[in-house]
Specification:
Length: about 170
Amino acid sequence: MEKILKERGLRVPKLAKCTGSRKCREPSPGPGSKKKFCCQMQALNHQPDFMQQGTMIEEAIKDEPGFQVIYYPKFHPELNFIEMYWGRAKRETRANCKFSMKGFETTVINALNSVSIDTIRAFAGRSFRYMQQYREGLTTAQVGLEMKKHTSHRRDRERAEDRALKEKPKRPSR
């Protein structure tokens, strides 16, 4: 790393190698800032050509038509229906595990295949409903409550009709 930094004309002999400490994870100084980089990795990551470099998967598919890399927000697995699919497969695997490596491999494959395409589509629909709730500006807690209320579009409509019937129209006072 030191050699690369020297080749680029960066005078950073006092910068340590990255230790992954809390300080290193803090935001780096921007261009023109007097704040210094905490390590060699941070200094290198802020070089223009390094900043423009895509991830390995982005580079692999950038010339392929019809593919796009979409990053989901961290800590929101409810927005990614693949997480729901994987969760169902893990539950199936735990229930049917043979506790040997060969048995485990076959159990995982069987568990992944046991989740029907209709179930996967239902997971996708659920993720889209979560996304819609967030788009409407609800907080995480509010979204959780709304999602508990939802069972199906038909039942939601029936429930709304029942509420409308229960509410008595107010008569105008004389």
